[in-house]
Amino acid sequence: MPHTAPPADRPLLCIRTAAVLVLALLLVPGSAVFAGGGDRMVVDPLNGFSLLLPEGWTATTPDPSALGGSTTLSNYNPRTLERSSLGQENVFKPGLIKIGLSRSTRPEHETFGTWAAEHLSALQAKSRIPDYESGEVMVSDARPVRIAGRAGSAFTLSGPNISPILQIDLDWGAGQSLTARVTPATSAALAQALAVLEGLRADLEPTASAPLLARSKVIALDPVVTELVGTISHTQQKVTAAVASCPAGTFPGTEAAYGGNELTLNLPFQYEASYYWEAGEIGSYYGNGAHCNGNNDYYAVDWNRYSNASCTSDAGDYGQPVLAMAAGDVSNVVAEADDTTGYGNHVEIIHTVGSTRYRTRYGHLSSYNVYETQTVAQSQQIGAVGSTGNSSGDHLHASFQKDVNGTFYSHCYNNGNACPNTEAAAWPQSPQPSPLQTAAGASYIVDGGCYQGPNGGGGGFNETVDDSDPACGLYGNAAWWHAVSGYGINNQMHYTYNNQSGVDNYVYWNLSIPSSGNYTFQVFIPRNYATTTSAQYAVYDGSSWHWYSVNQSIYYDDWVTLGTLYVTAGTRFVYLQDATGEAAGTRLVGVDAVRAIQ
Are residues 227 and 109 both part of a single domain? Predict the structure, then answer.
């Protein structure tokens, strides 16, 4: 249903002022491309590429407004895998393949060859990992390769407790480099993975005549790649078994009280009335059992999101905001392409109480929103949940450590029993566990427990505006708006066909913000009549607009977080337009409820 010309603005449900209508005309949409058939087009504006993804593969793309992030491709459903027994070891089972893609900007006037050599040298210098179960990581020398018509270099990363990785750095032109990380680096997996990567394009809107790979195609391995895979010894591919379970009575990850210095920690997630986060257990890729391995990230906790209080109904984790557990200074931000720890994209924050320093770490992020040396507030968003690094499914890896004589150690609490970690002499025992602040107040986190974030608690601010409410207005051509019963909040929703560039139909939701502060904005995506891969939303915070792109096609009756913003008191707006960048009339833009929570 192509739109040939923008019609006159026409309110359907309520009236907006002329000033608001002028603002809508100033908003510029993002872009995406859709390819029909069994394959589909993936577009990542943040990292500057498009890719035709074969049937049977899944893709998650990072927030385009983030400071950095990765697209993750996999030939399996990560939401299903991470909640099954197949996902409970830090190794990829036969047949599973994951690819991480991220872009780097080279220093001005630096050639790709120089950058690639320096990048490899930096990774090789990180040969010993002091606080992650991957142990010593071996980085091979590089070999020249050519992928998707681009010159590049390839090398392997391997260790006793990680699946082997093939890293490919490609010259992406204009001072940019694109890095692909393929896990596992085995001949069978690489034959498929490299076929997928041959479809990479720097053009975010490739034409129909652009050469694209057919689905399910595999290619013969380049002899150079075969040689690289051969450098990974059998010993390096062998995965050391983790301790089966934590000793009885252990208290994972949150022991902040020690030696009289107290640090109040919040759960690293926002409050959502109907959603809970599970600590460890089967709902994590590793589970705490694999973290109890005698290394210095001993009491890390993996978190997954559910839609019921018993944490049995999967709600999906990808893209959910990750919040700082306490105020502090960002000490380390590592991109997946530069990582040798297994954490992928990760952020570390130093928290100082008197003369005592603590560190929290947030791993496997899809994207990050902070930079090194930045000071962050407690519960400020620092990134989003993902599955980068040594991970087979979306989850947050969060850990807590204390600085003892210049080294950060895990904190052990074991009900008076000996702590089975290697730091026993440096930090043998905590006198008591200390809680995380949750919606229920101070909570002692236990393995398998389910918790809600503290922001607002049970009585926090939560305003929901549905598409049927007077505080919501649909504008544009009435003939192009369609009401549907049986779907969405209050069993009603609207949709319109997408436009490619010009804005014809659009929506405003009015939200009354009672006081200035940090609010999280979410949109509800119904399970039907919402097929665009690039719905363009914007949130007005009282002084400026913040843009967000949402792939509606991957959600099934889900609340999707746009972001957490500082918003001034008053009537504030969430906006959605029909321009998606996809070919006109090929996708449906679904419209339902939005909400602001604190």
Answer: yes
Angle between helices 187-197 and 223-230 (to 10 degrees): 140
Q: How is residue 238 annotated by DSSP? A: P
CATH code where residue 524 lies = 2.60.120.260
Nearest partner of 324 among 189, 216, 453, 464, judged by Cα: 453
Highest averaged pLDDT of the listed ranges 366-370, 405-409, 518-522: 366-370
User: What is this structure's pTM?
Assistant: 0.68
Q: Does residue 148 share a domain with residue 45? A: yes
The answer on 309 and 212 residing in a single domain is: no
The b-or-e profile of 548-579 (16+ CB within 10 A means b, else e) is bbbbbbbbeebbbbbbbbebeeeebbbbbbbb
Q: What residues have CB less than 8 Å from 207, skipping those under 6 apart? A: none
Phi-psi region of 362 (alpha: psi -120 to 50; beta: other; left: phi over 0): beta
439 and 474 in a single domain? The answer is: no
- What angle (nearest 5°) sits at the alpha carbon of residue 540, between those of residues 597 and 590? 75
Asked if residue 243 has pLDDT above 90, the reply is no
Angle at 218 between CA 213 and CA 219, to 5 degrees: 95
> For residue 139, which phi and psi values (nearest 5 degrees)?
-115, 120
Q: Are residues 422 and 449 in the same domain?
A: yes
Same-domain check for residues 326 and 363: yes
Q: Is 12 left (phi over 0), alpha (psi -120 to 50) or beta?
A: alpha
Mean pLDDT along residues 105-131: 81
Measured CA to CA in angstroms, residue 169 lies from 139, 143, 477 at distances of 14, 11, 48
pLDDT of residue 141: 86
What would the pLDDT profile of 29-59 be if each residue is shown by its tens digit?
A: 222 222 334 567 888 888 989 888 888 888 8
Cα distances (Å, whole numbers) of residue 512 to 135, 538, 554, 560, 573: 51, 16, 30, 20, 9
pLDDT for the residue 527: 84
CA–CA separation, 429 vs 435, rounded Å?
A: 16
Between 561 and 262, name the one with better pLDDT: 561
Instruction: Give me the pLDDT at residue 271, please.
Output: 84
Would you say residue 253 lies in a domain?
no
Q: Are residues 111 and 49 part of one domain?
A: yes
By residue range, what is the domain housing residue 498? Answer: 18-30+461-597
157 has pLDDT over 90: no
